């Protein structure tokens, strides 16, 4: 394992077309489906960062800001913004995209914490987070600000 890893090494983006199996009776995304996508995306970001298997330790308060409508594309973005000795904090944002109209809007935001595991399934140390560019530092700062704002509400 390297002593440090870049924020952008963790950056992960997934897309999901909202289909009937993941909708409620209003034709909107089920909250559980969105949470599932967020957990997967955040886990991939954590694994890319740590170079190890990870498990979800916690998920902070989730803000469902706007509904995702049937036929829209859910774009899920995640990146590591902080670390502990064995833990990894990930910011996850979801936006809805209408590919026909070229529009998009933010729909969901949360923060996940993962623990890195070694081959025996025991917690293992993770690299230190580095931000080698202003863009990376900006993402990290934005995550801290959003987390602090969420804690106030």
Automatic annotation (TrEMBL):
<dbReference type="InterPro" id="IPR040170">
    <property type="entry name" value="Cytosol_ACT"/>
</dbReference>
<dbReference type="GO" id="GO:0005829">
    <property type="term" value="C:cytosol"/>
</dbReference>
<dbReference type="GO" id="GO:0009062">
    <property type="term" value="P:fatty acid catabolic process"/>
</dbReference>
<keyword id="KW-0378">Hydrolase</keyword>
<dbReference type="GO" id="GO:0052816">
    <property type="term" value="F:long-chain fatty acyl-CoA hydrolase activity"/>
</dbReference>
<dbReference type="InterPro" id="IPR006683">
    <property type="entry name" value="Thioestr_dom"/>
</dbReference>
<dbReference type="InterPro" id="IPR029069">
    <property type="entry name" value="HotDog_dom_sf"/>
</dbReference>
<dbReference type="GO" id="GO:0006637">
    <property type="term" value="P:acyl-CoA metabolic process"/>
</dbReference>
<dbReference type="InterPro" id="IPR033120">
    <property type="entry name" value="HOTDOG_ACOT"/>
</dbReference>
<feature type="domain" description="HotDog ACOT-type">
    <location>
        <begin position="8"/>
        <end position="120"/>
    </location>
</feature>
<protein>
    <submittedName>
        <fullName>Acyl-CoA hydrolase</fullName>
    </submittedName>
</protein>
<dbReference type="Pfam" id="PF03061">
    <property type="entry name" value="4HBT"/>
</dbReference>
